[in-house]
C-alpha cells in the first residue's frame, strides 16, 4: 500500500556545485506547462491506484520554493484535488532560505505544509560561495523568525561536512549556529562528489581540495556527539530529531514501504515495482500530453531483492532491522538468511543483535556503506 507521495519540482534559480538531482535553470523553462502536466500525472495515478493509506507528502527538487506564489497555489490546488488531505500527517517542502518569503510560507501553511526542510548547508560565507549557494545567514534567520510567527510545528535544517578546504573549526561553528536556532531536526551529510556536477569537473582537473577521510570521520564523530548533547536523537545515519520529530516521509523509504514518485526524474515504489520517470522535461511532458505515465524504467522487485533492500535500508536506522517484521514480511528468519553475513561484522563490533533485531553499532555507522554491500545475496 502506498504510504507517501514525493513530488519533484525540478527548477532552480541557481545550480549548486554539488547537486546531481534532476534540475533545470528556471529562466525560460515551461514551468506552468509542467505544473499542468504534473496535475495530469496525479490524476492518472489517482485513478489507477489506492491512496487510502497515504499519510505523507514531500515536495522536493530542484527547489519547490523557486515557484511564484501563483505557481505554488496552482500546485497546491492539484495536490488537494487528487490526494486525501484530511489524512496527511506530515507535509514537507524543501526550501532555499533566500526564496522562502513570508508570503510563500503563509500560503504553504494555509495549504497544509507543516514541515520545512531548509537547505542551509553551512554558515560560512566563503563555503556558501564555493557551494554555489545564494542565501546569507540573514536569510536563514528571517525564515526562522517567520516560522515562529506562523507557529510552524517542525523545521529541519540541512548541513554538509567534508566540504572543500573545510576545517574542523568551521564545522564546529556550523553546528554551534544551528543549535542556537529554533529547529526540530537536522539532516547532516558528508559531501559526495557525483558525476555531472561542477565539483566533479573540478576534481577531475585537480582543482578541488577535499578534507582527508580521517578528518571527515572526525567531523561525523563530532556531529553525533554534539547533536546528542543538544537534545537531538540520532534515528538514522544522517538524521537527528528533537522530541521524536523524525521525518516520517523519509522513514517510509528506510522501512522499505511503498510510495508514489511524481514529476520529472522522480522515483517510486508501487505494487512491488520500482520505477523512475523520464528526467528531461520534453520527454516527461510528451508522455503526459499523450495521457501516458512518464515512466522510463520499471523493475518488479524479486523476493531476493526485497530482502536485500530490507537489510540495507533498515540498517540505516538506529533501531535497525526487526526480526519480527522480517519474519512477517518474508516468512523466513532473518538469522537463517543473513546469519553468516552478519557474523564477521558482529565479531568486529560493527553490528549488534538486540532482543528485537539487528543494528549498526556506533562504530559501524562510520562504515555503513561497506557493511550494506555484504547483504547482497550471491
From TrEMBL:
Q: Which residues form a coiled coil?
A: none
**Residues of the Radical SAM core domain:** 1-233
**What is one GO biological process annotated to this record?**
porphyrin-containing compound biosynthetic process
Can you tell me where the transmembrane regions are? Answer: none
- Give me the Gene Ontology terms describing cellular component: cytoplasm
Q: Where in the cell is it found?
A: Cytoplasm
Q: Which UniProt keywords apply?
A: 4Fe-4S, Chaperone, Cytoplasm, Heme, Iron, Iron-sulfur, Metal-binding, S-adenosyl-L-methionine
**PROSITE patterns reported for this sequence:** RADICAL_SAM
A GO MF annotation of the entry reads: metal ion binding
The family database entries (InterPro entries) matched by this protein are listed as: Coproporphyrinogen-III_oxidase, Elp3/MiaA/NifB-like_rSAM, HemN_C, HemW-like, rSAM, rSAM_horseshoe, rSAM_sf
Pfam families (UniProt xref)? HemN_C, Radical_SAM
Its main subcellular localisation, reduced to a broad class, is cytoplasm
Query: The organism sits in which domain of life?
Result: Bacteria
Q: What does this protein do?
A: Probably acts as a heme chaperone, transferring heme to an unknown acceptor. Binds one molecule of heme per monomer, possibly covalently. Binds 1 [4Fe-4S] cluster. The cluster is coordinated with 3 cysteines and an exchangeable S-adenosyl-L-methionine.
Name the protein family: Belongs to the anaerobic coproporphyrinogen-III oxidase family. HemW subfamily.
Protein name from the UniProt record: Heme chaperone HemW
Amino acid at each position: 500500500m502506498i504510504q507517501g507521495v514525493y513530488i519533484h519540482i525540478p527548477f532552480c534559480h541557481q545550480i549548486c556545485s554539488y547537486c546531481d538531482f534532476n534540475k533545470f535553470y528556471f529562466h525560460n523553462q515551461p514551468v506552468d506547462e509542467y505544473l499542468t502536466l504534473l496535475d495530469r500525472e496525479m490524476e492518472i495515478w489517482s485513478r489507477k491506484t489506492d491512496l487510502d493509506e497515504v499519510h505523507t507528502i514531500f515536495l522536493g527538487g530542484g527547489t519547490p520554493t523557486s515557484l511564484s506564489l501563483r505557481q505554488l497555489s496552482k500546485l497546491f490546488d492539484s495536490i488537494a484535488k487528487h490526494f486525501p488531505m484530511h489524512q496527511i500527517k506530515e507535509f514537507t517542502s524543501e526550501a532555499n532560505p533566500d526564496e522562502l518569503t513570508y508570503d510563500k510560507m503563509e500560503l504553504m501553511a494555509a495549504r497544509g505544509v507543516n514541515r520545512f526542510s531548509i537547505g542551509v548547508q553551512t554558515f560560512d560565507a566563503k563555503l556558501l560561495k564555493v557551494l554555489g549557494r545564494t542565501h546569507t545567514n540573514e536569510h536563514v534567520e528571517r525564515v526562522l523568525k517567520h516560522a515562529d510567527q506562523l507557529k510552524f510545528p517542525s523545521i529541519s535544517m540541512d548541513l554538509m561536512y567534508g566540504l572543500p578546504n573545510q576545517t574542523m573549526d568551521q564545522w564546529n561553528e556550523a553546528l554551534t549556529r544551528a543549535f542556537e536556532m529554533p529547529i526540530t531536526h537536522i539532516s547532516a551529510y558528508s559531501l559526495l562528489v557525483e558525476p555531472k556536477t561542477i565539483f566533479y569537473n573540478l576534481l577531475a582537473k585537480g582543482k578541488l581540495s577535499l578534507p582527508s577521510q580521517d578528518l571527515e570521520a572526525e567531523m561525523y564523530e563530532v556531529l553525533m556527539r554534539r547533536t546528542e548533547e543538544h537534545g537531538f536523537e540520532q534515528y538514522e545515519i544522517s538524521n537527528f530529531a528533537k522530541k521524536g520529530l523524525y521525518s516520517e516521509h523519509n522513514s517510509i523509504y528506510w522501512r522499505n514501504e511503498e510510495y508514489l514518485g511524481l514529476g520529472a526524474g522522480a522515483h517510486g515504489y508501487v505494487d512491488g515495482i520500482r520505477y523512475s520517470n523520464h528526467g528531461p522535461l520534453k520527454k516527461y511532458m510528451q508522455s503526459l500530453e499523450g495521457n501516458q505515465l512518464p515512466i522510463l524504467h520499471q523493475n518488479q522487485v524479486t523476493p531476493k531483492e526485497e530482502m536485500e533492500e530490507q537489510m540495507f535500508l533498515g540498517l540505516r536506522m538506529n533501531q535497525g532491522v526487526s526480526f519480527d517484521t522480517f519474519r512477517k514480511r518474508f516468512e523466513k528468519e532473518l538469522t537463517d538468511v543473513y546469519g553468516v553475513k552478519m557474523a564477521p561484522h558482529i565479531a568486529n563490533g560493527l553490528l549488534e543483535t538486540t532482543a528485537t533485531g539487528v543494528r549498526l553499532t556506533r562504530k559501524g555507522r562510520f562504515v555503513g556503506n561497506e557493511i550494506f554491500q555484504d547483504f547482497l545475496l550471491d
